[in-house]
Amino acid sequence: MEKTERHERILHLAGERGTIFLKRAVEATGASLPTIRRDFQELEDAGAVERIRGGIRVRRKDGNVSFDLRAVQQSKAKSSIARKAASLLQSGDVIFIDGGTTTNHICFHLPQIPLRIITNSLRLSAYLDDASNQFPEWEVYLTGGKIQHGSNMLAGPGTVHTLDFYHADWAFLSVGGITADGLYNTSEAIVETERKMIERADRSVILADQNKIGKRAMCRVCGLNPIDRLITNKPEGRSLVEEEMQEKNLMIIHVD
């Protein structure tokens, strides 16, 4: 098992219960004890976890798993999903991009064409600000709002108020979960932002890896009707949840 895959496996298991210990990580990955100790240290250095006696613990702020931890989970799938989303864009498009870890990957795949990008993501805006020196045809707008600690995004009434000024051709959104009865995310502030982006965009696209399919989070964003399409990686075998979503006329695009 390669290091990236091993790290994702460790973080997935840690995310389920909040902690994982050395013995469990060795059993789950087949790696040696010294290798797992190095993995734990590297994950702590990356800010995704903190070391505890005999294991690691997921860093949580305001009840949410940290951005750094979520960013490395399913990173290959998230990159492929984001690449497909970016391929939908045409010259002159105005796009909303929310502050999720999957949508964050879009910045690495944007076409070199004139675009206007409106985001509540501090990381995304910082990257695009640097990149716009090389690609000046990108215009970048950052919303107002309160910094959501641990998520690197802006949310709250200030964010929603800012979005009322704009209209977009596309809204690209991450979610905490998606089922046949709608979209879910982890906090009220995030949900209000995503609802406003959906309202102010012609087409809304959900970017979600298979870990999000069939799952719910604390807050419901909306039903499937306002959503233009879902981009996700291919499921392992038949997905009854996806079939239910397709019955509700949701277009689903799979990537490798």
TrEMBL record:
Transmembrane segments: none annotated. SMART domains: DeoRC, HTH_DEOR. It comes from the Bacteria. Keywords: DNA-binding, Transcription, Transcription regulation. InterPro entries: Carb_Metab_HTH_regulators (IPR050313), DeoR-like_C (IPR014036), DeoR_HTH (IPR001034), NagB/RpiA_transferase-like (IPR037171), WH-like_DNA-bd_sf (IPR036388), WH_DNA-bd_sf (IPR036390). PROSITE patterns: HTH_DEOR_2. GO terms for molecular function: DNA binding; DNA-binding transcription factor activity. Residues 3-58 form the HTH deoR-type domain. Gene3D superfamilies: 3.40.50.1360, Winged helix-like DNA-binding domain superfamily/Winged helix DNA-binding domain. It holds the Pfam family DeoRC. PANTHER family: HTH-TYPE TRANSCRIPTIONAL REGULATOR SRLR-RELATED, HTH-TYPE TRANSCRIPTIONAL REGULATOR ULAR. This is DeoR/GlpR family DNA-binding transcription regulator.
